[in-house]
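Handout, page 2. Input:
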Amino acid sequence: MGIIAWIIVGAIAGWLAGLIVKGAGFGLLGNIVVGIVGAVVAGWLLPQLGIRLGAGMIGEIINGAIGGIVVLVILSLIRRA
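Output:
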């Protein structure tokens, strides 16, 4: 996948994660980074748990959103500490 596609997937995944985890968003650029990091986290974590979610761009967005949610929850817990 090209860098532009990664940015688009990251932006969508980060935006979705920011909507789901209220009050933990980091703005557009921050959410793109969270989405990309979330996609990496989900790309590692979900197969370890034996979870396979779709294929192609939609599957990547779903995986990135799930990973982004995990990353946002962890970051919000760290912020509160």
